[in-house]
Amino acid sequence: MKFFEKLLIANRGEIAIRVMRACRELDIDTVAIYSDADKNALHVRYADEAFYVGEAHPSKSYLNMERIIDIAKKCGAEAVHPGYGFLAENYRFAKLCQDEGVTFVGPRWKSIKAMGSKIGSKQMMKDAGVPVLPGTDGGITDIEEAKKIAADIGYPVIVKASAGGGGIGMQIVHDEKSLEEAISGSQRIAKSAFGDATVFVEKYLIKPRHIEFQVLVDEHKNAVHLYDRECSIQRRHQKLIEEAPSPIMTDELRERMSASALKVAEASDYTNAGSVEFLYSQGNYYFMEMNTRLQVEHTITEFITGIDLVKQQIAIAAGESLQFEQKDLSIRGHAIECRINAEDPLNNFAADPGKILRYRSPGGPGIRVDSGIHMGYTIPPNYDSMIAKLCAWDSTRHDAIQRMRRAISEYIVLGIKTTLPLHYAIMNNQQFIDGNTHTHFLQEEHILKT
Ligand code: ADP
Fold first, then answer.
1. Distance from Cα 200 to the centre of ligand 1, integer Å
2. Mind listing the UniProt keywords for this protein, alphabetically (predicted)?
3. What is the ipTM metric for this complex?
4. Candidate of 115, 279, 289, 441 to mutate for ligand 1, largest count of ligand atoms within 8 Å of Cβ
5. Is 218 in a helix, a strand, or coil?
6. Distance (Å, rounded) from C-alpha 131 to C-alpha 214?
7. What is the pLDDT of residue 448?
8. pLDDT tens readout for residues 173-202
9. Residue 369: pLDDT above 70?
């Protein structure tokens, strides 16, 4: 049975190709969209059909909802997959799809909207009995009130944008005298980045771990989790390396955290694929947010569960029931993902777009590369700097690390600076090898200087 005849991918780069691969295996025709900067991009060539969407700037192309829906309708695409980034967590887009009779491959717009507010979702989870970090209950309107709450929970605290994403607008505050300025600074950034100046304060955890759970829920209320991912290795609060499962996970902790993750999904009336993010510190975990989309790091969950998450997303969007239950699932082996960015790790991760003069990606057993680049390709400066995801799987964590080292050493990318040397150094770092990671790992280990 075909879920859809034709599907439009409202994205670019590796994730557009990833979705198209699933479609091809499902006999679904694919439609790409491209901006001026992407005329020669791989995702355009991979698709069955491709349509020009607008100028290079995302607001003129990959964020242009009306234009994208227009293309979908004109070419007869019954469904739209948003990938991640761009419109993936924009409830207005999901709603527009629904209003225009095009299936949005993702959750209902109301769930996206509910989870789009960090304040609202935190409150919802608190009410549902899921642990959350102490902080201001809503957006800050009264600075004296915020000072009082910060003093009660104790410094350090973190100021966060309610509509935030990508680590933007977050500020760590160590004492009361810096609080007011941090709040107004975050409000300014939040206003310009997200069009919403609402910020809140919560307890800042020292060296927590970022652990998230993948969930899948169909439209018939069947829900499963697909275990955990550890995403603690970050730069500027953004993930750089992920692994599944988390090296510190025990059966007992997994039991508790996965139950919370499913509670989060239930409380938000969630459907399709999503990830529930927690911070973990000293035996306790706290709900941080839910990502209502396919994650960059879904690949490692696919490795350890054998489940194709994109195919599941498409089947769920078509109204199908999940074909498995929790008891049918198990973890097989260990998987690691390195995000290869066109950035100079020795120069504060400055972006380094440009032409790729030589390119050879690794292969062999247990290796997966998802990428939108190739030899001779010029990386445009207009978009995200991630150029490839390198994933390694093996039966144990130790062997997966060995395999990742081997794969990195096979990887040839010449012409631009990448994070590959940093990844290699991390794979050889004793703390990483021992599984002692936390969100301050990169700053603390001074990896490239040793
Ligand atoms: P965004 O949505 O902008 O990506 P998140 O809320 O997902 O922001 O947080 C991203 C990262 O910021 C986390 O993985 C963690 O490293 C750090 N962080 C966020 N909140 C806290 C906190 N209360 N204490 C310590 N670190 C935090």
1. 13
2. ATP-binding, Biotin, Gluconeogenesis, Ligase, Magnesium, Nucleotide-binding, Pyruvate
3. 0.97
4. 279
5. coil
6. 18
7. 65
8. 999 999 999 999 999 999 999 999 999 999
9. yes
